[in-house]
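Case study 2.
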Amino acid sequence: MDNLKGSPTINTDIAATNDKDLVELAGLHAYTYPLFESVLQVNNTDYTVIDTRYEDPTGLDAMTVVNMETEQISIIYVGTDGSGKYGKKDILTDAQLLSDLTPAQLSAARSYYTEMNQKFNQVGGVQSIAGNSLGGGLVGAVAIENPEVKAVTLNPALLPEGMMDPDKTYDNITNYFSSYDVLTQTLIALDLHGRIPGKQYEIFNGIPELTKLGTNHTGYLREKDGRQYYVIGEVGKPGYGKIYVDADAHIVSSIWTGVPLYGGHSDRIEINKENLDLLASSLQSHVMERLNLAHEYLGNSVAIVDDEASRYYERLSRLQKIFEEMFENLISEPLFMGITSISNRLTAEIDHLVSLLNVAESHAKSLNYILNSPPAELLEHIFRTNVSVEGIFNEIRGFLYDLKADVQDLSKSLIRIISNKIPELFEGGKELWYDAVVSELKAHYGIVNNNRDKLLSHIGEYQKQVQDVASNFHDRDQSLGQSIRSKSTHSNSISVQGTNTYKLEDSPYMELRMKIKEFQMDTSYSAFTASTQALLLPILHKGWVITLNIENALELLSSTIKGATKFALDYTIPGKLFGLFSDFDDKIRNSVNNALEPLDEFAGTIEGIRKGLDRLMAEYPTLLENFRPYVETAIFNNSGYYNVHLYNLASIAILREMEMLFDDVVYQLGNHKAEAIEALCEVSKKVKGNMGILYEQVDRGTIN
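Prediction:
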């Protein structure tokens, strides 16, 4: 749809629209397809839509806006939008950019620029163009043919092969690459970013998560309430907060000129009262506002660490309970339930086996009595026999006592693992802490917090010095410089804030950065695996051997008792004695059955115990593998640990940006003959140095 009506009345004195506004227009507002004459508020500046070109058959979507303060006209090209009427054309164009073809949409973008530039020629024409994603590619295609137009892109698509002139630098084009943008990072990895014309600068916005791919690419959230932050953590819990993602907030510009501070310093300015006032004002507002946001991020990190520290015993107790349950349920054998305590079912069952053995032995003795006391009438017709099983019963009884002792050793070893070995999983670190990872983070943050407070105080003092110098700049420059350096107030009614020493403390902690958790896991869990296997497996194997011995002895006992029915008979027994012999035979068989019945139950239980011990040996490595993730969470909750990383990333992004800003401040204040300005420059260097120290310390709290 085209709206080519007359534009609002504007002046011909055109000033530059800054990069921040263009990035927000391209990454946020363009995707909302604002209607003709809509007013868009961007960084407290109103932009009015004076033309739209939506639903072009080539897939082109674009709008033309006017900055109502600077009266500059800009074209904003919309990026890939597969949901639009001609969204498939966007997808096609994206694919064609990888070739040497010139997609129709690029030609349409150039035509739209020419049309708008002619339409608004009397008021200066189109002075800037901007776009994100595919829109950035369209900007590049237009800007390489129109070097007089300012072009700004955010995470742009590349141009078709051969479209750019390799001998040109295209200094009119500025491209901002977000740190976590998949498109531009992929192009860099494939060495295709050379097909993006102009200067290329990294900005530190976004969140490194797969679920944030879209936002990382466009640089903005598109929510109805306009919020530009992601919520981190859970409401009401320590560490709950927000991380702001709006891309333009991360573009660092000169305090004085608004020119982005990338690729070198801004042009030198005259250091006068007006510019010093501007510096003091920016320090008090923008700089402190950004640093306070970094302070807030750090505060949330500290809250998460403090919460983990306060829950040490809860984390330990839970991990111990998990190990206990995992071991008892490892083989789903009821006999082994409660094995992690001295009084357990398996021990009681062994006592029951002793009772069964005693019953069987009693019946075996009765059998012997019968065998040795046949009726008198049969004495001359049978050979006397005897079931000699007393020794076997005693041997099995001894094995049972050994097995019971072994099971008690197993329970004691499990108790030792739960009481001693599991707490050792947490121990270690630089100071041999009982809660190594949490304690090292806590110790590090104790230093970082103090250094953060010193930095804020340092900047506050510096802001006061700048303001004092500005207020008295025309009076006595030399005296001002001496006052700044001597930490004193000049007597001749010229008051200036003196300089205190703000030396940030070194931190000996977090030298492995956030890999301390990985290191703790690897070292402590390797030790836990080796020590617990050395503790348990010999006991389990010993018990298994004992049960095997019991089964062998039991088989011998059973066959011996059964043999009692096979006594020798005189085959010439008179017929009148058959009935008497039959009664004698029945008594023997009943007695044998009575002896074997408890032994059958006994054998079934022993087999279950043997198989259980065998499976425990086989499955314990699986338990160790399954237990590891629980240990990892117990050492430091995974989501909380990652949130600390995210907050620290957000914080160091701001610190890096403020370093860039102060680097320009140092440059602007340098090489001035005025002593007061030289003194301010020295303080600026110290502030910048302290920012670098704090940045490095906070950066240790990020995951590589």
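The chain has 16 helices and ten strands.
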